[in-house]
Amino acid sequence: MKLFQFIFYLVILNSALSCNKNVSDDVIFYTDFHSSKLTKVEKTGDNQYTTYFSPAFEPVNKSPWFAFGISSKIDKEIVVQLNYGKYKHRYVPKLSSDKKTWKIIDAQRIKVDSSTGIATLNLSVSSQKLYVAAQEVESSEDTYSWINELLIKHPEIKKTIAGKTVLDKNNYALEIEDNSNLNSIVLIARQHPPEIPGGTISFKAFYEELLSNSQMASDFRSKFNIYTFPLLNPDGADMGNWRHNANGVDLNRDWVGFTQPETQMVDKYLTRKTKEGKKIQFALDFHTSYSGPYMLILDSLNEIKTNKIIPDWIDRIENNSQFKVEARRRSQQLPYCYNYFYNKFNCEAVTYEEGDEVDRHIIKKRAQAYARELMITFNNK
Ligand SMILES: [Zn+2]
């Protein structure tokens, strides 16, 4: 096989992002954006390419993230294989020309070999860059610009620098706080970088529902402070990590040891709030799973010892919305975020899991319904 022309540029844009560009004849593969991931690309034949993806840290669960751009000097059809080495294809590719609007690849344009785990894509490429990614790309810039738009619409939200990340970036909390309120709830999103459906789409829709100008939402906000960590792992998101933060640690296994700045930040922040007299009543931690949607809830001991919010909330969702809740019970003793809330603050907490490929419209509707029913549950207590 003739070696293709290969030019590699490495431009350090800032401490977190290395920008490289792989050039092969007239087709260019791009990784010059936050959250991109493409380990290697080879030309394997006329208009045929193999792309390779490997995780930044191991061991890691099977969540092979990919995100790259492609352009071609001339309009044409190319074949691109996604090769994950010892891992297997999981996420149905999403395509975009602007990294804002995404569309799932047509079913007839993808084939997955279940024994090798390699996916083969047929793509139409042109001089306009085509983005191909495991999920909609949501880098820290994207989440922070959503926050900045929210702050304009809702001046009652206070954005604070709650701590720093491993890479010394600011890590933010959003506060809606009335000093006369002691009752508080906490939302945490995106500990795991690829988990955009729950970690970003559900989380945003849920939070925006809490901010709505309905009577129910304003009643709720008149009684509850809302503390939010909208992107707990910005380093991991921007690095295109499969699971970890920049130290290679799964943050959702660090809620007992607190070895990482991101988990330490939350603990320090909430400890300070409780010292000021705030009472944390409930917490939600937003994730995505292959088998979602479902909700992880703690042993029944959790609600027996507290305010029975979870069973009332689930009853309300099932009676008043189109959604059913698959609740999966887990032990109190695991080093997960929601266990921390129960063990430290004696409050109820859930892990909110969406599914990888659930229709995005349904994801938003579910999050809105869950948020409304949670507010009514609290308003009625
Ligand atoms: Zn997760």
UniProtKB/TrEMBL annotation:
Listed InterPro entries: Cytosolic_carboxypeptidase (IPR050821), Peptidase_M14 (IPR000834)
PROSITE patterns for the chain: PEPTIDASE_M14, PROKAR_LIPOPROTEIN
Pfam families the record matches: Peptidase_M14 (PF00246)
Required co-factors: Zn(2+)
Domain Peptidase M14: start-end pairs: 136-381
Family to which this protein belongs: Belongs to the peptidase M14 family.
The name this protein goes by in its record: M14 family metallopeptidase
UniProt organism field: Flavivirga spongiicola
